[in-house]
Amino acid sequence: MHDEITPSEEPLEDLSTPELLAGDGEQDDGVEVIEATPGPEDVVFFPAPTIEIPEDPEEAVPVLSTALAQSQAEAKGYLETVQRVAAEFDNFRKRSARERDDIVDRASQRLIERLLPTLDGFDAALAYEPQTEAEQNILAGMADTHRLLMEALAVDGFAAIDADGAPFDPAIHEAVTGPGEGDGELIVSEMRRGYTLRGRVVRAALVAVRHA
Length: 212
What we know:
The protein is α+β, with helices and mostly antiparallel strands. Helices cover 45% and strands 15% of the residues. It has a domain at 158-212: Nucleotide Exchange Factor Grpe, Chain A, domain 2 (Roll). Strands 3-6-7 form a 3-stranded antiparallel β-sheet. The protein has a 3-stranded mixed β-sheet with strand order 4-8-5, with no helix packed on it. Helix 2 (57-126) runs antiparallel to helix 3 (133-154).
């Protein structure tokens, strides 16, 4: 016959006690217990330093005046610091924009300089007088291609220098034999077209001049 087993009257251990749930971060019997992460209510805010104001109004006035003067001086210092940082940032932004524009201009100018022989080839071909209808059609197609190319380059500020019949300007024109003495030289003919990029001369126009 088996012995009769009676249930124990001792209460079972509560496994949901805070000691087991929170613990101290150490391992117990091979089980790692992780501490709970503190919530916002656990953050401690330290109050700002206060000024001890005397109860006597006559003694409190100089204390408050001194504290006010110190606060105003600190506020002025903070404002000057912020203004200086803002000015430095604005200068940095402008300097960066100028450097970026210079890089783009130099890259664009290098590309344009590589295209100059191609543009000169277009000018030479378009100056040819067609003798047949087939030549006229070919030149018409070349003229359209040249126009489209110039329109695409004009978007970035590329333009041809006005030279035919214009007054001689040594800043944008280069004389074949050099201008004569005196002022008022006029361009007789254009020997080679010149170009500018965003107002900067990429290549001066080669021209022949005479006195006006």
